[in-house]
Amino acid sequence: MLSADIQPGKDDRLEISGDLNFDSVAALWERCRARFGEREALDVDLGAVQRSDSAGVALLVACMRLARQSGKKVRFFNIPEQMLALARVSSLDQVLPLQRD
Predict the structure, then answer these.
(1) Which domain holds residue 64?
(2) Rounded to the nearest 5°, which phi and psi values hold at 49?
């Protein structure tokens, strides 16, 4: 069983839930990439993320990179404080397309 999941959520967003860590993010990335191919833009809701280490932030960077390479848009909603703190350490909060509801 995965400790993290990605599912369709409300407002046509993809909802990521669970624990984002080095063990869960690799499999989640593959699922995220597949979902990204189905859409013109990707809105990701992170509000159900319970815990995250730097691998979770790396997932956001990978999604952003894929969006740029594909000519698509990605936005991240409801980033948990723990992930935001990790992003701020390397100033990624200035680069990632973070949104507030």
Answers:
(1) 12-99
(2) -70, 125
How far is Cα 15 from Cα 45, in angstroms, rounded to an integer?
A: 5
CATH of the domain at 46: 3.30.750.24
Mean pLDDT for 2-18 is 89
Report the alpha-carbon distance of residue 17 to residue 92 in Å, rounded: 21
- Residue 2, pLDDT > 90, answer no
The helix (run of H) or strand (run of E) holding residue 36 is helix 25-37
CA distance 46 to 60: 10
3 domain-assigned: no
The candidate with the shortest Cα–Cα distance to 4, out of 35, 44, 48, is: 48
Does 73 fall in a domain? yes
Average pLDDT over residues 27-39: 85
Sorting pLDDT into bands at 50, 70 and 90, what band is 1?
very low
The mean predicted confidence, pLDDT, of the chain is 90
Is 84 within the bounds of a domain? yes
